[in-house]
Amino acid sequence: MVYPTPILAPVNTSNGGPDGSLVPDSEISSIALPSQFYSPPLTDTRSSDSNTGIAAEMSKSKDSGSSGSFHQEYIASLRYRNDLPPPDMPPKFLDIPHEGLQRFLTPGFASNLARREEPNIDVDAEGGMPIDLVGIPGLHLGDESAIMAPETPQPIDPADLPLLMTLDQLKNPAPKNANVSFLRRTQYISAGLRAPDGPKVTPIRAKARSADKAKSQDDPMYIKKYIQKGFDIAYPDSRHVGEDTPSRIKGHTPNKIEVEAWAHPVHPDNPKLKPVGFYPLLPDLQGFPDPGGFVQFKFDKAPVQGVSGKRDERMEVAILLPSAPEERVCQEHATKAALHKSNPELYPDPGPIPWDYDLFLPEKRDAAKEVIASLRLSNPDRDSEVLYTHEGTDGTRFHRYERMRTYATSAQTLGNDSKQRDVALTLFDPAEAKEGQQSKQKGAYYYPILGKTRLKPERARTIAQAGLAPTRPKTKEDQVDQIQVVVRDPDEAEVYKRSLHRAAIDPKFGKSLPRLPNLNLLLSRNMLKPTTLTEEKRRLKIAITSQPLQR
């Protein structure tokens, strides 16, 4: 539908109505408006009478009059913002200092807290596990092997081995012999490999020879001859050239390469190194103590500080006096030993009893030289009383030792059946020895070590936290503060006991072993039965004083 375009033109007002309108009212037709264009009044608070009056007035104005027009109101709804007013008391932000937070976030804060504060952990009746721990034998005595995984697991049944195969084992295995000669390194093809166009050849004779050779190398006589070959190369003048006898055997014939290697040794890692001396490895036949070996003691920290960076010479003649633990520790150790003896697979060996040791040093720093002179066997004046530094009330002279501190056993391995497993080695050259000490030949002398003990300073707090104190805190009456040491030569029983250890490694000396000493003397010194650490008699005659020191 196209609407006509309006045209603006001057209006002729001569034909207007009497009121000046352009079109008389008689010529305007009445307009009937639909109900949807009618809007109710703005206010609904009018009474019903006023509404009726308005309706009657509108209908009257509509019916009366020649124009036929009526009054219409236009209502437009407007929206206004109704924001909340600002609060009467706005919030106040406090400036709280928080610089201390950085201290709690440092890495060392947790470590210092754990070291400073003792953990207060309450263990429930089940020990943290939903099982009854009362019926487990030895658990409350410190033996936790029953609830721990065994160190040596039980062997797996062959029927269960396929269930434990890894993914790599489940893959298709590669063929053992693909009969492919290309893409390989250059190698010799033996008769044992299958040829591409021929059957597999089995070297029957070569296999038999290798079996005979392996059998001969495991033969005890072959091993003896192989060891004797090394001595024949080192000492060709004492080589045995006759037939084998029960006392002497002939070693294997050395080849040229072995003789050259002994004459001109070459270091396996650094060929530029050259040997500066050769020492035969020999046992010190006169250096056996009563137990037949020595015990190695190692301190966690230096017991005494040296002077001007040098080691204190008093440590060369120090004395460690063992002390037995209290009865409670002995009973617990005996219980663990009985459990281990009844079932070694379930209960581990508790080992020896953890002893405590009191360290004693000479009273004066310069007294170490006199003590060493008294102990040196090569000193002809070792029994002179002039070497002793102190004199008693009865006129006897002695070396005075003072107790430094008590050390607890941190770890120990004693009672080793194999005495030659660990040895101490010392090099001796008569040309470099002092005058009067050339009694031995040149050699590297070894000394068997029967046990190793690691010592740590005894602290009351550490012992209390462990729950198993090695010893009970000693009172002044029980504590040894000084010991008086007098040196003497070993008696007949001690010499005989040391000779037994020498006869075990020196057959010729065993045949000429001295006569058996007095039986009563051996029994009095406990020489005919195994001795413990406290029963061992030393070369030193020790007089112990229990009186506290006057400091």
UniProtKB/TrEMBL annotation:
One of its GO terms (biological process) is transcription elongation by RNA polymerase II. Transmembrane segments: none annotated. It comes from Aspergillus novofumigatus (strain IBT 16806). Residues 27-53 have a biased composition (Polar residues). GO terms for cellular component: Cdc73/Paf1 complex. Pfam families: Paf1 (PF03985). This is Paf1-domain-containing protein. It is found in: Nucleus. The keyword Transcription regulation does not apply. Belongs to the PAF1 family. Keywords: Nucleus. Its main location: nucleus. The keyword 4Fe-4S does not apply. PANTHER family: RNA POLYMERASE II-ASSOCIATED FACTOR 1 HOMOLOG. Residues 1-69 are annotated as: Disordered. One of its GO terms (molecular function) is RNA polymerase II complex binding.
